[in-house]
Design brief:
The chain is of the alpha/beta class and 273 residues long. The chain is built from 7 helices and 16 strands. Helix 3 crosses helix 7. It binds cytidine-5'-triphosphate. Cytidine-5'-triphosphate (CTP) binds next to helix 5 and strand 11. The site of cytidine-5'-triphosphate has 15 residues, from helix 5 and strand 11.
């Protein structure tokens, strides 16, 4: 019940400081102690120092997680995205004082810092509608979501039954590219900053540069599935940041540290805009 209640508070945008761990009044050891006063003070100092940070007053839209494309009422096409990178970015931006609007596919995550608005979506189409309608309210957009590129042309309204024999095929149609669409919209709003991701398995740099230009992004974060510990489901990531001035490589780090590197770069670009 306590866990449920804490979750309700978090969803209402309340920041919860983690409890201390140790010997508890009920006679067991574990998490649940009132933190020491000096730890509470350190936590608050850190919170307020960051909230006066370099993104204070900036409005940042973050897309996160993977999308689900329905096949029938019980099945969908999805991907391995956990949403961790997008949530780490939302957290980092919120911690540094930004007003974060987070649009996410279904995930089992929460932010530690309160976000300004949260929109849960399922499909690429829903994410497109949310992101494009929120674009006007954003100074920058970080597109960390793994958006489906194809969706079933028709969604069966009843569960598809197993056929007695033979193969089965689904006809898929392309989804709309959110990043490319926002890149088009940016032509009317040149001050906005667009950040994309590229997860590649081969010709990494070439593909990433192509996406940077094709989608009219300010910079793109490249992670390769060939790097150990990088990409889906891991808590670590290894990235390169590519913009029109070149490429910068970073070592393997936790997703929170990677988020700080990306947001440092974003803050620099926003300062120039
Ligand atoms: N993206 C998007 N909308 C889509 C597909 C991708 O906004 N329908 C965004 C992703 O969030 C990411 C960037 O575009 O920031 C690159 O995504 P990726 O899947 O690597 O690129 P694609 O254009 O889909 O190219 P491909 O799948 O051929 O590599």
């Amino acid at each position: 019940a306590v866990v449920r209640n804490l979750e309700t508070l978090r969803r209402d945008g309340i920041l919860i400081m983690p409890s201390g761990a140790g010997y508890l009044a009920c006679g067991i050891n574990g998490a649940g102690r009132l933190p020491e006063p000096e730890d509470i003070k350190a936590y608050l100092d850190d919170f307020f120092a960051k909230r006066d940070g370099d993104l204070r007053g900036r409005r940042i839209l973050v897309t996160a997680g993977g999308t689900r494309e329905a096949i029938d009422p019980v099945r969908f096409i999805g991907n391995y995205s956990s949403g961790k990178m997008g949530f780490a970015l939302a957290d980092e931006c919120a911690a540094r004082g930004a007003r974060v609007i987070l649009v996410s596919g279904p995930v089992q995550l929460r932010t530690h810092y309160p976000v300004y608005r949260y929109f849960g979506v399922e499909s690429a189409g829903e994410m497109f509608e949310a992101a494009t309608s929120l674009f006007d309210d954003a100074d920058a957009v970080i597109m960390a979501a793994a958006v489906a590129d194809y969706t079933p042309e028709q969604v069966a309204d009843r569960k598809i039954k197993r056929e007695k024999t033979g193969d089965m095929s689904l006809h898929l149609k392309p989804t709309r590219d959110i990043a490319a669409h926002l890149g088009e919209m940016k032509k009317q709003h040149p001050g906005k900053v667009l950040v994309g991701f590229a997860l590649e398995t081969n010709d990494e740099q070439h593909n990433a540069e192509d996406k940077l230009n094709r989608k009219n992004l300010d910079f793109i974060v490249l992670n390769s599935l060939n790097d150990k510990g990088a990409g889906f489901r891991y808590d670590t990531n290894k990235i390169s940041i590519i913009d029109r001035n070149g490429k910068k490589d970073y070592p393997l780090k936790s997703k929170a540290e990677v988020a700080a590197d990306i947001v440092d770069h974003l803050a620099e670009v926003m300062k120039r805009e």
